[in-house]
User: What shape does this take?
Amino acid sequence: MAKIIVVTSGKGGVGKTTSAAAMSTGLALRGKKTVVLDFDVGLRNLDLVMGCERRVVYDLVNVIQGEAGLNQALIRDKRVDNLFILPASQTRDKEALTPEGVAEVLAQLKEDFDYVICDSPAGIESGAQLAMYHADEAVVVTNPEISSVRDSDRILGLLSAKTRRAEQADEPVREHLLITRYNPDRVDSGDMLTLDDIREILAIDLLGLIPESEAVLRASNQGVPVTHDAESDAGLAYADAISRLIGEDVPLRFHEARKKGLLSRMFGGGHR
Amino acid sequence: MKLLDFLKRERKQSAPVAKERLQIIVAHQRSQQGQPEYMPKLERELVEVIRRYVDVDDDAVQISMDSEDSCSVLELNVTLPRE
Assistant: This one.
């Protein structure tokens, strides 16, 4: 039986899709059979970040409306075994996702996979609520920025009230904090919320800290999840987050500014 | 002179301000969590009613709902201006 994990944030543009792609790729690389679903009906982008946009034939809405079978709609990842993508519809409106339909699709996926990753749309409307409803765990993606932290807190409120686990008084959804776009230099200069500030305000477990990195844009440009850029700071940081997700204890890194040597001070920082 | 101004000007760090603002707004958000959806409207209408008699500020009325086992308690705090 799979674990269902929603990647959510409230605010848009904080790195939900990047994180969903990176984490599902990382899980599959570790041998976990993983499927990643795009819930952003009308504005799908997971296919682009995963690099499979030209192989989309059917989507989640087609499956829910009975126009295609689940196996027809699932796209097998080209790079990693055990990894599948279920894209969102580009043309339908978001009402096309019905609670019953989503429940049925997730129930089927749960049988066949180890991990089901739901990439939530931004906002707190029906699409975001459907994406989180069946979750066992939630990854709350947060930037060190005031509006993102506030929206994350709103999402935490919804996770504790509007999910299946909350409604059925089951064990609550396990909430993880994933901080993205962290810039230790700006933290040191006092113009960015610190890791500890964010943890103190949101008061949930830290799953990972992804530094602001050139590797992330490079990855989405190419349609190759940043986990594959295994030498990059962001790639390593996502690998750490995945380790923690599957229960390994790994130390935190990339949270402190790198000490600059004389050469890099003179000629600018090297490539990361 | 300009250089001296530049050196004297101490730039205030902005992150502590962000943290303080967040702590306040998040505490407010959490206090509203799980409350019935009519609460904001009830709060507005209560202010209107009180204003018929006393001139109070928008934030003069604070209401909260606490649920216990068998009943819910609506707590109402009205701050009246000094005579």
In short: Chain B is about 45% helix and 15% strand. The first helix of chain B runs from residue 2 to 8.
